[in-house]
Amino acid sequence: MLNAINPEAGMFGVAPHTNYETNPNAMKTISHDTIFTNIAVDSQMRPYWDGLPLPKGDIIDWTGKKYNGTGYAAHPNSRFTSSIRQYPYLSDRYDDPAGAPVSAFLYGGRRAKLVPLVYETFSWEHGVLLGAMQRVETTSAAEYKAGILMNDPMANRPFISYNMGEYFQHHLDMGSRLSKPPKVFSVNWFRKNEKGKFIWPGYSNNMYVVRWILDEVAGKTSQRVKTPIGFVPKPEYFEQFGFDHAVMTDILEVDSKGYLEELEALKPFFDMFEDRFPERLWKEYYDLRSRLEDQLR
Predict the structure, then answer these.
(1) Phi-psi region for residue 186, left (φ > 0), alpha (ψ -120 to 50) or beta?
(2) CB neighbours (10 Å) of residue 120?
(3) DSSP string, 32-43
(4) pLDDT at position 141 over 70
(5) 143 pLDDT band (50/70/90 cuts)?
(6) Where does 99-239 show beta strands of DSSP type E?
(7) Does residue 57 contact residue 43 with C-beta atoms inside 8 Å?
């Protein structure tokens, strides 16, 4: 069994569009003793950002100027930071030095196309490849222009301080020491339709995806379909919660041709690590490519 601790004493989030409808627990957490950055303030010096009810009187935007109603009052990447102890549903195991058992790893990033809402890998090793394959669209939080697709292994690129090939091998080694390693999943809340609109409503609705993940961890596997990239939920699973069948079919679609192109785009990145890139991950890479090619035959 793999156990983990949370070494952080606080929690942070992006302020815009956080409100009592989208994230009530966050609003309760930041109701006092909170640090805000790059937000707007109302005439009473109370925090304001896009998505909150418009206050009466003047608003001073994040640049210190009077807000005229155009553009953003708060920076798109404005943040809040609070003590984790202010979270209303903090686990009683938060300070347990033995940590808490880890049943699943979730890798995710911002992808408007290709990556389904959620899927489960076939094995721990396949899951390490999934993490290594992460490519995400840059946001206002990055040092690059927003919307550019960049390699971001494990969604952790800015924080990896040594050769990534060795980092991948560390993950493989960790799994090999476990009799039952955690299951590995991909999540993508940001897929868009042909009109450029987000398909998935996000926020608290993400818990329906987490519920399917918990079912998979518990061995309740009747609501999944095997695809070349992994196990994907049946659209019917989400219909019980009121989601449209056609919408869920769209957001869970696996584009084999698109994934083959993704693998080709990733290969130069993996090649950069030369002999430090684990052989086992090359095996997983070519196995995935074979499954995708078989699907297209």
Answers:
(1) beta
(2) 24
(3) SSEEEES-EEET
(4) no
(5) low
(6) 100-101, 104-108, 118-120, 135-137, 149-151, 183-187, 224-227, 230-233
(7) yes
Which whole number is the average pLDDT over 23-28?
95
Structure tokens at 127: 């899951």
Which pLDDT band holds residue 284 (cuts at 50, 70, 90)?
A: very high
Nearest to 129 by CA among 163, 98, 172: 172
Total H helices, total E strands in the chain:
8, 15
Tokens in use for 11?
Answer: 């929690």
Residue with tokens 């993508």: 188
Q: 41-45, 147-151, 177-181, 284-288: which range is least confident on average?
A: 147-151
Which among 165, 107, 170 is positioned nearest to 135, based on CA atoms? 107
What are the φ and ψ backbone dihedral angles of 100, each rounded to 5 degrees? -125, 145
Which helix (H) or strand (E) segment holds residue 53: the answer is none
Beta bridge partners of 44: none
Q: Which residue has the tokens 């297209």?
A: 296
* pLDDT tens readout for residues 70-89: 999 999 999 999 999 999 99
Residues 221-227, mean pLDDT to the nearest whole number: 97
Residue 154 has what DSSP assignment?
A: G
Domains, the chain, ranges and CATH? 10-86 (2.170.8.10), 103-296 (3.90.228.20)
